[in-house]
Sequence to fold (279 residues):
Amino acid sequence: MTDTEFGPAVRRWRDRVTPEAAGLPAGGHRRAAGLRREELALLAGISVDYITRLEQGRSTGPSAQVVEALARALRLDATEREHLFTLAGLAPPARGVVSAHITPGVQRLLDRLSDTPVAVHDAAWNLITGNPLWAALFGDPAALHGHERNIVWRHFAGFNSRVIQTPEQERVFGAATAADLRAATARYPADSRVTDLIKELLARSETFARIWEAGAITPHDSTSKLVQHPQVGDIHLDCDVLTVPGSDLRIVAYTAEPGSEAADRLALLSVVGQQSFTG
Fold:
């Protein structure tokens, strides 16, 4: 059914979304109220050429990652998202597994927090998306693949991070994220991706194995983070984690005390960092 219907469906939904609804400036004369292909490409992290070929039926068989990105950028609800997967010839993400679907309400929240670095992770701490200021602060998330997009993996596998932690902060963070994975296995027992991640962490990290064997349930508390940015220097930020009921999405927001040096450095990133300081 589907390859011939996928492109027209994307086009119809693109026409439905206004730039303002997507957090973009309307700017200049527009022939239609909806998103331009260039704007959809920006929101989805997909090339304009590829979107053009999909809409015109010259490319078929998009990957699940592409369909997920388009569904998010087009502000599709859960039923529409499932339909887009079906049109792509893919099985919709199974119910009872960790979801990467960002609801339109959460997306609108991200759009309105343009002056705050914000990222969204799934219940297993895989990065789904970060807003432009988050990317300016931590680097372009498009460069991360596979387990590199998982915070727990990066922490226990020793990946370089711009966040500098004391040994006590590392201990608390590791215990809290390991507890989150334990909760994810209980809530989503059918999701083999979570169990596979845990098996690989147990084999790779003695520290993770020790925490996992202890079985402690450690909640997340609001905390402060020191971010060492290669261009603007050290930034001391408050970090809060909000969980979306029903989907277990984790919204991570970084804020600075008004009038502080950290606020000034965030403002600098907001003005020029999104063009010059990513990566």
Remarks:
- Residues 104-276 form a domain with the Beta-Lactamase fold (CATH 3.30.450.180).
- The chain has a mean pLDDT of 87.
- The chain has twelve helices and six strands.
